[in-house]
Amino acid sequence: MTQAEPDRPPPDPAEPPPAVAPAEPGPPDLTAVLAGRAGHYRGRGIDQDGSGFDGTLTVLALAGGAAVALDIGVDQPGEPAYQEHGVLAPGEDGTAQYVSVSVNAPFHRTFRLRRTEQVDGAARA
Fold first, then answer.
1. Long-range contacts of 97-100 (CB under 8 A, 24+ apart)
2. Do residues 95 and 102 touch, judged by C-beta distance below 8 A?
3. Is residue 88 a contact partner of residue 68, using CB atoms and an 8 Å limit?
4. Quick check: 31 and 66 in contact, CB under 8 A?
5. Longest pairwise C-alpha distance within the chain
6. C-alpha span between 75 and 85 (Å, rounded)
7. At residue 72, what are phi and psi to the nearest 5 degrees?
8. Residue 73: which of 106, 103, 97, 93 has the closest Cα?
């Protein structure tokens, strides 16, 4: 049996425990967001030279959503096709990491990702 502190009466088992303040909302878990939107996406775009291209993105949840595979493809008339394959998952310290190989970099590259308040120098919406 535990002794109560001298200045406090023992807790009443009929009373609910005190409310715990909700945790501060943090940034969304990028891996979970993408895993929840698995699928095949297609679109058209314009590159920096004004030429049109077709793009594809395939998102596949791995290991029950613990990681996400991303396959990216770009087809542009008169240009070699671009392909990139990568995996997004939290690293040992919890920081999101993206490991990829592509036709431009046939060796693996690892990018440690962090959320920022600006994108290309502009405030994030």
1. 98/70, 100/70
2. no
3. yes
4. yes
5. 83
6. 15
7. -120, 135
8. 103
Burial of 73 (0-12, 13-18, 19+ CB in 10 A): middle
**Tens of pLDDT along 22-72?**
555 666 789 999 999 999 999 999 988 898 999 999 999 999 999 999 999
Distances from the Cα of 91 to the Cα of 58, 61, 67, 99, 100, angstroms = 22, 16, 10, 11, 14
Q: Residue for token digits 């895993």?
A: 35
Task: Report the distance separating Cα 125 and Cα 121, nearest Å.
Answer: 12
pLDDT, one tens digit per residue, over 8-32 is: 666 666 766 666 555 556 667 899 9
Cα gap 8→19, rounded to integer Å: 18
Q: How far is CA 82 from CA 31, 35, 38, 58, 94, in A?
A: 24, 23, 21, 14, 30
pTM of the model: 0.68
